[in-house]
Structure formats: C-alpha cells, structure tokens
Write a structure and sequence with these properties.
This protein has a two-stranded antiparallel sheet with strand order 1-2. By secondary structure, it is mostly helical. It contains 16 helices and 2 strands. About 65% of the residues lie in helices and about 0% in strands.
Length: about 350
C-alpha cells in the first residue's frame, strides 16, 4: 500500500507541475511582459519603503522631497497591476479596504500601503511651532459657511459650502492640520497653500472682514484671536488662518455657483470632487462651470491632462495614461482614489452638523 500511495502522490505532483508549466507556456508575450513589469514595480515599491523606514529609524537625514520616490513607486505598482489585469482579467482579485477598484489594486499588498501612509505621517509631521486648533473640522465648516453667507448664499447652500470645504480638507491632508508636504517645498498647511496663495487669500479675507463681523460676531472674534496668535509666523501653520486664506484664495468666489452645482451634481461627493478640481486645474474647471454643460465639457490640453495624471486621475495603466482628452463626466468618474477621503468628510460633517 505504501508504494501505491507514493505512486499516486507522484502522479498528482506531476499533474500539478505540468499544469503550472502549461499555464506558464500559455502566456502570451504581452501577458509575460505584464507579469514581469508588475513583479518589478512591486519589488521597487517594497525597496523604497524599506529604505525610508531604515533612514527614519536610524534618524538619518532624508533626501529633498523624501515622499516623491514613494509616491512614484506607489503609482507604478497600481499602474503595473492595471496593465496586468488588462492583459489577464483572471488576476482581478477581491475588494480592498482602500476602495480602489480591484482591477487596479491587489488586496494582498494592503500592508505595504499602510506602511506608505505611516511613513508619510512621519515625513509630513507639523513643525514644532505649528498652532493647532482643538476643533479643526468645525473650524473648516464654520469658516466656509460664514464666507458663503457673505457671498449671498441661502442657509441650505451655505451649509453645502461647509460640507464641500470639509471634503477639501480631507482631500488635501486626510483631515490632518498643519502638515508639511513630503512631495513639495512650496505647499504646506491644512489646505496645502503656497506663500503667494496664502497672502492672496489673506487680502481677500480682509476685504470681507467687516461683513463677516456683522453676520457672525463670534466667528469674527475668534478670527481676531487667531490672527494675533499667528502674527510674526508663517500663517500656513496656524490651522485657522490657513483654512481661511486657502478658502478665500481659490474657492470663495465659486461658492456663488453652488446652487447650480448641486442641481447638476446632486451627489455631495461629486460636489467635493468638482471643488477639488478647482485646486488641481482651476482654469478649465471654471470654464466648464461657465459653459452651461458642465458634465460634457471636454479638456484636451496636454498640460491639463498632465496635471490630472499628477493628481491620481487617469494616472494608472497604459490605457488611462494614453488618454488625450476627457469630459468632466469622465474626470469625476476617474477620481475614485478620492472617494474614501470624501466619505470620511461626510461622516465628520454629520458629527459636526447633526440634523
């Protein structure tokens, strides 16, 4: 019986090995290339994660823009996986906790992306003198609502401005106040503004300050305290002043468009996506809003498409990267990497403004 069992086991092993070899031989050149490319990208992602972790743990000086190599490696992994699943749909796996479409992401590498986030938390920690707020989320909503009221919005639409602005906070920093930027030496703070943007927003705020004091004296008094607290420092590292100036710089004038936007985009997450696009590609987004046909407005400028790809829109896989144009309907649909952030913002808004 022993020899018979061994013969059976040997036959099974041979069958399994033969099947695996057959599958390997059955791969087309495109599939073989895609497998090799994904394995290479995954290996490089693991390598840069390990290198940054070793440098941080050893307290070694980090390179300039220490997060850029990490970011590019993560993009390469997602891109290579999408190319792999395009070539071999059978490789599409189970859903993942990041809510990335499974065709773009192998759930087995979730721990690597967790480590990616932990490293960025360390690299982007606020500077020692940062001026935190005990109510960072409420600040965003309160400031946006007050600004929207000055711009003439009805209460319902002013609240929409508050909800949208909270989404921007999560989109820019995952809801973390006063952070630095591992990929830029220019954009900093809760709303990730540059020095000129912060100054421009401050000037615009001063122009409406008296109106703010009339409609919301309590908020105006808080603003006076924060302005005094931030005097002589970089206003981008006072949570209140950075949110205030960031909203005034890029978004406040567009708050007037919210009544029309909510009709065209009834989904609050789509509304947040649109305002995030004002951060990323402001000129075409403003043009799309003025066109009267927002969702079908098409962009085809190579520069604009590059900006979209640099912000994780049409960035993953050859098919997406090859796009030369897109409508705003397509752009909004491609912003799936923002969905989880905006869902968190919606949950936080419900805490701040319970019905």
């Amino acid at each position: 019986m022993g020899s018979r069992r061994l013969a059976i086991f040997a036959a099974v092993a041979f069958f399994v090995a033969a099947s695996a070899a057959g599958e390997q031989r059955a791969l087309t050149p495109r599939q073989s290339e895609a497998v090799a490319a994904y394995d290479k990208a995954l290996g490089e992602f693991k390598s840069i994660l390990a290198e940054r972790r070793r440098q941080i743990d050893a307290k070694e000086p980090l390179p300039n823009l220490p997060g850029q190599a990490l970011y590019l490696a993560r993009v390469a992994v997602i891109s290579a996986y999408k190319d792999l699943t395009d070539a071999m749909p059978s490789r599409i796996g189970r859903p993942n906790k990041f809510e990335i479409p499974p065709a773009y992401f192998d759930a087995d590498i979730e721990p690597l992306v967790d480590e990616y986030g932990k490293l960025f938390d360390i690299m982007e920690a606020p500077p020692a003198g940062a001026q935190n707020s005990p109510t960072p989320f409420k600040d965003v909503v309160d400031l946006a609502v007050a600004i929207a009221r000055v711009k003439g919005l009805a209460p319902e639409h002013a609240e929409a401005a508050g909800r949208i602005s909270l989404g921007l906070f999560f989109a820019e920093t995952n809801g973390k106040q006063n952070v630095r930027n591992g990929r830029s030496n220019t954009y900093m703070g809760s709303f990730q503004t540059g020095p000129s943007e912060d100054r421009n927003g401050h000037r615009k705020w001063q122009a409406i300050k008296d109106e703010i004091a009339t409609i919301d004296p309590h908020l105006s008094a808080r603003d006076d305290k924060e302005e005094a607290r931030a005097r002589g420092t970089d206003h981008r590292f006072n949570h209140w002043t950075n949110v205030r100036d960031g909203l005034m710089n890029a978004h406040a004038d567009l708050f007037r468009e919210i009544p029309g936007i909510v009709k065209t985009l009834p989904d609050p997450i789509d509304q947040m996506k649109l305002f995030e696009l004002i951060q990323i590609v402001p000129t075409p987004t403003r043009a799309a809003l003025k066109s009267g046909d927002l969702l079908n407005y098409r962009v085809s400028s190579p520069t604009i498409m590059k900006h979209l790809r640099n912000n994780s829109i049409f960035a993953f896989g050859r098919a997406d990267r090859a796009r030369s144009s897109a409508s705003y309907r397509e752009i909004l649909a491609a912003m799936w990497l923002f969905n989880r952030k905006f869902e968190k913002a919606m949950a936080k808004y419900a805490e701040i403004r319970p019905r």
